Amino acid sequence: MHGYEIIQEIARRTGGVWSPSPGSVYPTLQMLADEGLVSAEEEGGKKLFNLTERGRTEHTAPPWHDIESQLDPVDGELRTAVRLLGAAMEQISHAGAPEQKARAAELYNDLRRKLYAILAEE
């Protein structure tokens, strides 16, 4: 994978909890290459990184493993629902007709009020 794909994969595997920046991923990849754990080769103007044989044998638990063990499954479901709702709203904002956008904004505002009502429950 190239660095951006690695960033996306980490975000996917952590349910969006951890999305490292390029400023942290690329130096880490360089450090792993210096240690002989990954190799890098140019392809189509991009650097593609692969685990070396040493990297496979010295593989430890992935860094997101600790995060996964601390996550509440319901929180993960909520984060997924929020992400999917955001994606739907983004689609409407880009491709929706004016009346569709108005209806979506009305639904979104209604949902916000209902969410606050849930928090107000005793």
From TrEMBL:
Highest taxon above the source species: Bacteria
Protein name: Transcription regulator PadR N-terminal domain-containing protein
SUPFAM superfamilies linked to this entry: Winged helix' DNA-binding domain (SSF46785)
Organism the protein comes from: Lentzea cavernae
PANTHER family listed in its UniProt record: TRANSCRIPTION REGULATOR, PADR-LIKE FAMILY, TRANSCRIPTIONAL REGULATOR YQJI
Coiled coil: none
Domain Transcription regulator PadR N-terminal stretches: 1-59
Pfam families: PadR
